[in-house]
């Protein structure tokens, strides 16, 4: 399923030629079995066998019929599916549209001299299913406001449905009031506030990737499709051919144990270790202890995001002290606030594996960094939402679509 970010199709080809006809789940160059198996046991309690390629010969008939309808609609120019991109991550939106064989919708977005945002759709969306691709990554407030204005523009243009595709949901960490033993209270639950803003602006549905906590879905009064970036990262790790006997999955804090446990189950039920830490303030962490055995092992640290990299780098230092042979960092969202780059490139990590939910500036690349694309994951979900097709049809449940 994973393919590297730099492996995008040439933009000089027409969109119809860029469409990936088969297989529906892609492994890129790694299309054979490896000693390390990815177990496709999804987080919703479903069970399936090992994760196999989904080709035209193995896909469910209903899925192939759905794709055929989509391709016929594109060919005849009768599709009611429209994809627009904000300014936050246009490259990801382009990959999504290429996967579906569509052109990105034409939209004009500009800032006035006083900073106000202007949005104009430059094609008709009347009666269409519109998907707006806009992560609320830094600058979070700018990108969030842009998304709200885009939604309002689509609503006033008589779109049939409006889905906000938010690969990275900013403010997700402000999902509850902190313990009174940590802060003095009197805090905003900004995740709920942002959910209300998106709902009231006119969105009919939200498609989000790896929310910081599952309860954030409940903050929305509209349907939320929550997809996980784990299959993309798991598939890449499987291609490295690491023996399952040498693996240990590490949670960088107690709060991420459930995520790490699910990840470990899909890596041939690898053992689990936990880094115990004490946080003294926002973006400040102190490692205290390690629960589990990592001596002589390849440690895979799993988290939903890396911000300043304080937690994960201190955890990696502890793992090396405890005898870990190699340390890999895996995360879906690379926020990379300073001094994250200096910490991650300091030699603690054999490899830092991220996805492209947040665009990465050129100066933030370093030798140990690997960027995987979630475009196919999001595109498959968009296709199912548009075609009213459930994500739980095997083997599509391995995508983590609810």
UniProtKB/TrEMBL annotation:
Q: What's the domain of life for this entry? A: Eukaryota
Give the Enzyme Commission number: 2.7.6.1
Entry keyword set: ATP-binding, Kinase, Magnesium, Metal-binding, Nucleotide biosynthesis, Nucleotide-binding, Transferase
Reaction(s) the record says it catalyses: D-ribose 5-phosphate + ATP = 5-phospho-alpha-D-ribose 1-diphosphate + AMP + H(+)
Q: Does the keyword Transit peptide apply?
A: no
- Domain Ribose-phosphate pyrophosphokinase N-terminal: where? 82-202
Matches recorded under PANTHER family: RIBOSE-PHOSPHATE DIPHOSPHOKINASE FAMILY MEMBER (PTHR10210), RIBOSE-PHOSPHATE PYROPHOSPHOKINASE 5, CHLOROPLASTIC (PTHR10210:SF120)
Query: Which family would the database say this protein is a member of?
Result: Belongs to the ribose-phosphate pyrophosphokinase family.
Task: Kindly provide the name given to this protein in its UniProt entry.
Answer: ribose-phosphate diphosphokinase
């Amino acid at each position: 399923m994973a393919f590297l970010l730099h492996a995008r199709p040439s933009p000089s080809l027409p969109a119809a030629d860029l469409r990936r006809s088969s297989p529906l789940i892609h492994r890129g160059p790694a299309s054979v079995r490896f000693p390390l198996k990815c177990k496709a046991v999804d987080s919703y309690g479903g069970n399936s066998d090992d994760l196999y390629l989904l080709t035209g010969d193995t896909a469910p008939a209903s899925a192939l019929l759905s794709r055929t309808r989509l391709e016929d609609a594109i060919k005849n120019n009768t599709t009611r599916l429209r994809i627009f991109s904000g300014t936050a991550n246009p490259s990801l939106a382009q990959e999504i549209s290429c996967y579906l064989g569509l052109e990105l919708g034409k939209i004009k977005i500009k800032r006035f001299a006083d900073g106000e945002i202007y949005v104009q759709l430059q094609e008709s969306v009347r009666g269409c299913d519109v998907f707006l691709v806009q992560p609320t990554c830094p600058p979070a407030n700018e990108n969030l406001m842009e998304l709200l204005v885009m939604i309002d523009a689509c609503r006033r243009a008589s779109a049939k449905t409006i889905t906000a595709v938010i690969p990275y949901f900013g403010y997700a960490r402000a999902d509850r009031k902190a313990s009174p033993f940590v802060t003095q209270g009197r805090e905003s639950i900004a995740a709920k506030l942002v959910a209300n803003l998106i709902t009231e602006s006119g969105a009919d549905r939200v498609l989000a990737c790896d929310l910081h906590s599952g309860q954030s879905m409940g903050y929305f009064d509209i349907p939320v499709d929550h997809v996980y970036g784990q299959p993309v990262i798991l598939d890449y790790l499987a291609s490295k051919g690491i023996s399952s006997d040498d693996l240990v999955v590490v949670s960088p804090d107690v709060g991420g144990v459930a995520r790490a446990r699910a990840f470990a189950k899909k890596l041939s039920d690898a053992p689990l270790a936990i880094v115990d830490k004490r946080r003294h303030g926002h973006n400040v962490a102190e490692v205290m202890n390690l629960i589990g055995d990592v001596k002589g092992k390849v440690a895979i640290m799993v988290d939903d995001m890396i911000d300043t990299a304080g937690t994960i780098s201190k955890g990696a230092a502890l793992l090396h002290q405890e005898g870990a042979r190699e340390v890999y960092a895996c995360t879906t969202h690379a926020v990379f606030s300073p001094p994250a780059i200096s910490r991650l490139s300091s030699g603690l990590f054999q490899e830092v594996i991220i996805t492209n939910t947040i665009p990465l500036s050129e100066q933030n690349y370093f030798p140990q960094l690997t960027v995987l694309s979630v475009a196919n994951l999001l595109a498959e979900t968009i296709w199912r939402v548009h075609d009213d097709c459930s994500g739980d049809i095997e083997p599509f449940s391995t995508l983590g679509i609810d």
